[in-house]
Amino acid sequence: MKRTNQILWGVILMGVGLLLGLNAFGITSIKLFFDGWWTLFIIVPSAMGFLSGHEKTGNLIGLCIGVFLLLCCRNILAFDMLWKLLFPAIIILFGAKMIFGSLLDGSSAYEVKRLQTGDAEVTCGTAVFCGENMDFSGEVFQGAELNAVFGGLKCDLRNAVIEQDCVIQASAVFGGIDNLVPDNVNLKVSSNSTFGGVSNKVGHYQSGTLPTIYIKGICLFGGVDIK
To answer: What is the pLDDT of residues 180-192, one digit of tens each?
Structure first.
């Protein structure tokens, strides 16, 4: 994938250089710098990222913004409409991705669905305009739903008793969630983010005999950290 992007950028740069050279010798008179030409620095990378990358939502938003700015520069649309439509468009795209987007690969998605429809006791934690700490030391942990909205939440599992596979669904909207995990587990992490993201600072997968924690991070102008 990285090699493909390099080739595409190489072709684009060679084409631009060739046109500039032909213009300099008077062979052609192609106008490269039109009104709004700078929006191509938003449109082209976003389009390439959308077609070849894994995180499509952010690239789609960038592509929409770039096209909108280009149309404004060409006097087809008014600039003041951008600020009226930008935030609603982001919310709509994020919601659509939550409904239709696949958070995990096929095998993991099957396991998550199986676990979520079981009899496991799931703990809920919410932080809205505040900070919350959840410490599971000495407790049997079977899964959690964590929500941080304009706030911060910490879930400490370092001394928890984890006997079987479980799921943590962490949603951060203009907020942050810290997950402190023990060493004797496997981790499988997925993210569904818009102007935010999931940071896995542990990243270990040790053995199939250990229980697995599936962490599903959903971020909108927020972040989920795994430490």
So the answer is: 999 888 988 887 7
Q: Calculate the dihedral angle through the C-alpha atoms of 193, 194, 199, 205, rounding to the nearest 10 degrees.
A: 20
Tokens of 140: 């049997």
The tokens of 146 are what? 């964590």
Task: Find out whether 181 and 226 touch, Cβ atoms under 8 Å.
Answer: yes
> Which of the 8 DSSP states describes residue 39?
G
Spatial distance between the Cα atoms of 136 and 42, rounded to a whole number of angstroms: 45
Please tell me the pTM assigned to this model: 0.59
Task: Please give the structure tokens belonging to residue 206.
Answer: 């040790």
* Residues whose CB falls within 8 Å of the CB of residue 7, separated by 6 or more in sequence, listed in order: none
Contacting residues for 104 by C-beta, under 8 A, at least 6 apart = 112, 188, 190, 214, 216
pLDDT digit string, tens, across residues 79-134: 777 667 777 777 776 666 666 555 444 555 656 666 666 667 788 888 888 899 99
Beta bridge partner(s), residue 219: 172, 193
